[in-house]
Amino acid sequence: MEKLCSYYGSFIGYLDSKPYHDMPSPAALTDPKVEAHLRQLGFGYRAKYIHQTARIVSEEHAAGWLDSLRNPENPVMGQETSPAGDMLSGGRQGYRLAHEELLALSGVGPKVADCVCLMGLGWGEAVPVDTHFWQIAQRDYRFGKGKHTSLTKATYDAVGDHFRGLWGKEAGWAHSVLFAADLRAFSERHSIKVEVTETKQKTEANILGETRVKTNIVTVAQVKRENEDEEKDLLSVRTNTQRKKKRKV
Asked: Which of 61, 114, 155, 177 could form a disulfide with 65 if both were Cys (CB 3.0 to 4.6 A apart)?
């Protein structure tokens, strides 16, 4: 995102000598050379969809089209709020319309459309479901049995409807909390890949008739977190000090 803003967004200002740029407008991404340039910047297969979607939004829709899909309870700055309608099992009518409109854009599927609805258009009941969240639904909410044995369109809708039934207009943010919490737990699990080796160093010092034996135990183990590709060294040092009094002769 930083690259996209830096190359195509308008300049905002400096903070601690670092320049910051705004998000580019769709019109700024319609030039035929944009796709190739985005690939050079590392956007990969997304470069095509970004360019095509920007062109569709800029050339085939009226100005302000995206903002017209916003939740009126969460309008753009400077506009007054207004009711967004009754909450239904599938979400409010405005949310369902926004979701359907976004699906017509190049490269936009149900999950991406829900991400935009939730984080960009203010529809809190949008629940983005991917394979990871599908696993959470199976594990914690008893999905995966009966007719919902795989992540089909029907199952996607059923998961979203279930969470909307639990948390209503805030279902999407409840989903985000569960998703983030599960990722954190996942990243903190690790497995030891190489056996631990220990080295001990002993030093003795005669101080006031005492012998102090200091032992440094250095433990080095290679660990690999489940969501990382590379192993890392984990170093720990434990110091034990024992005091032994000399016998008087």
From this structure: 61
